[in-house]
Amino acid sequence: YPRQHAPETHLSEFNLTEIEAMLGSYTKVLFIRDPFQRLISTFMQGMGSSPSFSSFVQDILDTGQHNASLSWKPLVSLCRPCLVQYDYVVMFGFFRQELGHLLQRAGLPVDSLLPEFTDTQVQWTYSWLSEQMFSELSLQQKKQLSRFYRWDLSAFPFSSSLLAD
């Protein structure tokens, strides 16, 4: 988009006409990840100060969505999929095939630009880890997390998410 703006400029700082022009001129790609896997990743990276995953989840639930960190805030509130027509939605765990398709569509050489991905191993590891961490939560916490992420679970194909039940 021709208007000069700083890298930290938020879309909300533009007027509606400028927003529509920008969004119409860009290829919009949204990267998504199962909300429960995002929580696990955040916890494993030590971004929460809680000693256990269960207490970490409880801290998040007590804080609520409005004060949530970007690391675990529901995706729908961050990327506004109802307002923005994304050209591509790339799901964590399918990076190699989906990024290859994107590069090919952009006319770029696929093999030389794609890093080595271990999607299958990552999916298996997160599946196992998710089950372990999920079993640490109380029934009430599981229900509250499902409610916390209800719009993400409705908007995106997270059918295998433990929170979808």
TrEMBL record:
**MF (Gene Ontology):** sulfotransferase activity
List where in the cell it is found.
Answer: Golgi apparatus membrane
* Keywords in alphabetical order: Carbohydrate metabolism, Glycoprotein, Golgi apparatus, Membrane, Signal-anchor, Transferase, Transmembrane, Transmembrane helix
Question: Which InterPro entries would you find in this protein's record?
Answer: Carb_sulfotrans_8-10 (IPR018011), P-loop_NTPase (IPR027417), Sulfotransferase (IPR005331)
Origin superkingdom? Eukaryota
Taxonomic lineage from the root: Eukaryota, Metazoa, Chordata, Craniata, Vertebrata
Q: Output the SUPFAM superfamilies linked to this UniProt entry.
A: P-loop containing nucleoside triphosphate hydrolases
Membrane is among the record's keywords: yes
Q: What is its main location?
A: Golgi
Specify the protein's topology with respect to the membrane: Single-pass type II membrane protein
Which biological processes are named by the entry's GO terms? carbohydrate biosynthetic process; dermatan sulfate proteoglycan metabolic process
State the name under which the record lists this protein: Carbohydrate sulfotransferase
User: EC number(s) for this protein?
Assistant: 2.8.2.-
Task: Give the family from UniProt.
Answer: Belongs to the sulfotransferase 2 family.
Q: Which gene encodes it?
A: Chst9_0
Q: Which GO terms describe its cellular component?
A: Golgi membrane
Q: Which organism is it from?
A: Chionis minor (Black-faced sheathbill)
Q: Does the keyword DNA-binding apply?
A: no
